[in-house]
Amino acid sequence: MAHDLDLKGRRNLTPHIKSLQKKKFIATAAGGGKTYFLVHDPRVAILHMVETGEISASELFEINELLRDLKQDAIVASEKPKAVPVPIRKAKLA
């Protein structure tokens, strides 16, 4: 990836890696003095960007149209449940 972007050195590559991590396109882990990269299915990143508002409902519709044409399952954004306030009862003291 660094070669394709013509980036030389970690200092130039790190911001791009962090951006991809933030958008959930990749995950990284370090072990044994090495850094490992996991490339997620693009659906993971798309769903994350829908939930954070980076992709609108109309853009998601277009993405799902393309997925349908490719005979793939649509990406369904789940709505987060809203917090419901629970009334607190005061205990009666004897």
Notes on the structure:
With 94 residues, the protein is of the alpha+beta class. The protein has two domains: 1-39, no CATH class; 41-77, no CATH class. It has three helices and two strands. The chain has helices spanning 10-22, 42-51, 57-69, and strands spanning 26-31, 34-39. It has a two-stranded antiparallel sheet. A hairpin with a 2-residue loop joins strand 1 and strand 2 (34-39). The longest helix has 13 residues, at 10-22. The termini are far apart. The model has no long low-confidence stretch (mean pLDDT 84).
Order of helices and strands: HEEHH
Largest sheet: 2 strands, antiparallel
Strand order of the largest sheet: 1-2
Structural class: alpha+beta
Rounded Rg: 21 Å
Number of helices: 3
Instruction: Indicate the percent of residues in helices.
Output: 25-40%
Number of domains: 2
Distance between the termini: 71 Å
Keywords:
94 residues; alpha+beta
List the helices and strands and how they pair.
Blueprint: H1 10-22, E1 26-31, E2 34-39, H2 42-51, H3 57-69
Antiparallel strand pairs: 1-2
Question: Outline of this structure?
Answer:
The chain has 94 residues and is an alpha+beta fold. The protein contains three helices and two strands.
